[in-house]
Amino acid sequence: MDQNNQYEVVVLFNGYSCNTEGGSQSNCTCTLIKGPKNIIVDTMTAWDGNRLQNALEEQGLKCSDIDYVVCTHGHSDHIGCNYLFQCAMHIVGFCISKNHYYFDFDFSTGKPYFIDQKVRVIPTPGHTMQDVSVIVSTNKGSYGITGDLFENKDDEDIWHTLGVDNAELQAKHRNEMLKYVDFIVPGHGPMFEARYIWDKRK
């Protein structure tokens, strides 16, 4: 097997979310996909630029080495450091752009956007109506990097209470994702095996 043509999924920062007396505190999970194309999924808040650059340097990469930025949706804790990646194609929800050019691609048809044969961006609306997720095939299994489609591994009883735009759609895409992948990288927690949720449902 050609190792140079393989992808590796590296969670740079685990997201979190918690309630406080004055509101809530949260940041998203930020994931690096290393391989033939280098891809960042969800870039945290605008105050995380130095942390993100340092984490990339630890992986032997600079911001200019990133080919794609994918933001699973447009909330501020998922798009804050997009400005760092000025050489990359940006996919923010259903919008695909580079520099001042916006590309015609209609995620609302349900079709995936293929970065290559092993990485695709799929529409998974529900949390917002323009949510997307990234599915990656690796030699260790398949990964779904889902943003807030999944809050964390123990969200089965709470996800629909978190201000979702369409709970029915989100439930549909959650169930489909669990069938597609071996591992899930959620929006606000550590990566987990998809079978964890199947086992809890038994």
UniProtKB/TrEMBL annotation:
Main location group: cytoplasm
Domain Metallo-beta-lactamase: from-to ranges: 27-188
GO cellular component labels: cytosol
InterPro entries on file: MBLAC1 (IPR039344), Metallo-B-lactamas (IPR001279), RibonucZ/Hydroxyglut_hydro (IPR036866)
Catalytic reactions of this protein: a ribonucleotidyl-ribonucleotide-RNA + H2O = a 3'-end ribonucleotide-RNA + a 5'-end 5'-phospho-ribonucleoside-RNA + H(+)
Subcellular location: Cytoplasm, Cytosol
Family matches, as Pfam families: Lactamase_B (PF00753)
GO BP annotations listed: RNA 3'-end processing
SUPFAM superfamilies recorded: Metallo-hydrolase/oxidoreductase
Function, as annotated: Endoribonuclease that catalyzes the hydrolysis of histone-coding pre-mRNA 3'-end. Involved in histone pre-mRNA processing during the S-phase of the cell cycle, which is required for entering/progressing through S-phase. Cleaves histone pre-mRNA at a major and a minor cleavage site after the 5'-ACCCA-3' and the 5'-ACCCACA-3' sequence, respectively, and located downstream of the stem-loop. May require the presence of the HDE element located at the histone pre-RNA 3'-end to avoid non-specific cleavage.
Subunit composition and interactions: Homodimer.
Protein name: Metallo-beta-lactamase domain-containing protein 1
Organism of this sequence: Popillia japonica (Japanese beetle)
